[in-house]
Design a protein that fits this description.
seven-stranded mixed β-sheet; about 400 residues; globular; alpha/beta
């Protein structure tokens, strides 16, 4: 029965995309999907809903899945599934986490992006997904992209209970939406509930890799799960995308802060309150990347790089000499001003627009922009913060690197 449904879905996805529909897709590959929907199509042979779904999916894939977008014949699911799937960049990073082995099982396959990249170095690959539509699309795409694997349409818990033997790696990306479509973040609120499934997971897998919401506090996640060997905070373009845990018994896992091609390993025992340091002359200012901000490993940054924090809660660093390999954005400090009219008038005399950031500061970006009467944008970067002596300062900077 399930196989018959698979075939039916694939028929809808592929066979119904007749030549007229395919021509329409190719002709409007770069078109505005909303405009195309409003314009409609005169040719009755064109399946417009299917065409629009494929056009939108491929446009998203160009950004998130370039290798898939380059392959003719890949079938794309509805918009929500495309937005929820991992990017190729994060999937390739996770492939490095799991390495290689004999048996790889993905219990929450979805569109199959993580599975496609993470399973390639394993001799046996098993994709599990309870949504038959996604199973069918994934099976078609895997075959098209040359990945040999087993596709199983099943509930994750039921599959794990019935799975014979063990796996080298079991991977889960629990659904973070409830039955009403609302977002959930807590581990216990996701589907499947990994907390309840932990004993069986540990019994069935040598290594369990879990992808969670980047909104979660990684320390609490490790505590809730009874420990982890590794924690990976993964950002793309300085936007935190994923929290990935390799489960284990350690309460002091190795922490990795990842942003694009830069991965920084932080030994967790070094994390503690930031020690106070006297203010010194500084020529350069640094803003840590999103993964480091999420991790909160600010003392470790001071211990690893020749920089110091402006204050315990500023999360901005400075140095007298430029640090080329700092994991974040770097700026040259042109001047520093107090928030009084005279100093501001002098410091901002030739500036009519700027990019503004506030860190531990009593005003929002909008409030400060209004006070300074500056437009947004340009090449000037202003950082407003509170120093260790509780004074408010404005750092006027230019971006470098």
């Amino acid at each position: 029965m399930v196989r018959a449904y698979f075939n039916f879905i694939l028929y809808l996805c592929t066979m119904l995309m007749n030549e007229a529909t395919l021509v329409f897709i190719r002709r409007h590959a770069d078109g505005d999907v909303r405009r195309l929907a409003l314009q409609g199509v005169k040719d009755p042979d064109v399946d417009l809903p299917m065409a629009l779904q494929q056009i939108a999916g491929r446009q998203t894939a160009r950004r998130k899945l370039p290798s898939w977008a380059a392959a003719e014949g890949v079938v794309y699911p509805p918009h929500l599934n495309m937005e929820q799937c991992s990017s190729e960049q994060t999937a390739r990073y996770k492939a490095g986490i799991v390495g290689r082995g004999s048996r790889y099982v993905d219990l929450t396959g979805g569109l199959g992006v993580d599975f496609f990249f993470m399973s390639q170095a394993f001799s046996e690959r098993i994709y599990v997904e309870q949504n038959a539509d996604l199973c069918a699309v994934a099976e078609h795409n895997f075959r098209l992209l040359g990945l040999t694997c087993s596709v199983c349409c099943s509930d994750a818990v039921a599959f794990l209970q019935q799975m014979r033997g063990t796996a080298d790696v079991v991977y889960l990306d629990p659904a973070r939406r409830n039955e009403h479509g609302g977002r959930t973040y807590g581990i216990a609120d996701c589907t499947p509930n990994v907390l309840e499934l932990l004993p069986l997971l540990r019994q069935k897998a040598a290594t369990v890799v879990l992808k969670l919401s980047p909104m979660l506090d990684w320390r609490k996640a490790v505590d809730d799960l009874g420990g982890a060997d590794e924690v990976h905070i993964v950002s793309v373009g300085n936007e935190c995308k994923e929290l990935v845990l390799v489960l284990g018994d350690s309460r002091l896992p190795v922490l990795y802060c990842v942003n694009d091609g830069h991965a920084w390993q932080v030994p967790v025992p070094r994390l503690s309150a930031v020690s106070e340091q006297k203010e010194e002359a500084a020529a350069f200012l640094y803003e840590p990347n999103a993964s480091i901000m999420k991790a909160g490993c600010f003392e470790a940054v001071e211990q690893t790089y020749p920089v110091r924090q402006l204050a315990a809660n500023s999360h901005l660093f400075v140095s007298a000499v430029r640090v080329d390999d700092f994991p974040g954005r770097a700026f040259c400090i042109e001047s520093v001003a107090a928030l009084n009219k005279q100093e501001l008038r002098t410091a901002l005399a030739a500036i009519d627009r700027a990019n503004i950031t506030v860190r531990n500061f009593p005003m929002t970006v909008e409030q400060l922009r209004k006070k300074l009467k500056l437009k947004d944008g340009g090449t000037v970067y202003l950082f407003a913060t509170t120093l260790a002596d509780d004074s408010h300062k404005l750092f006027i900077c230019r971006k470098i690197g």
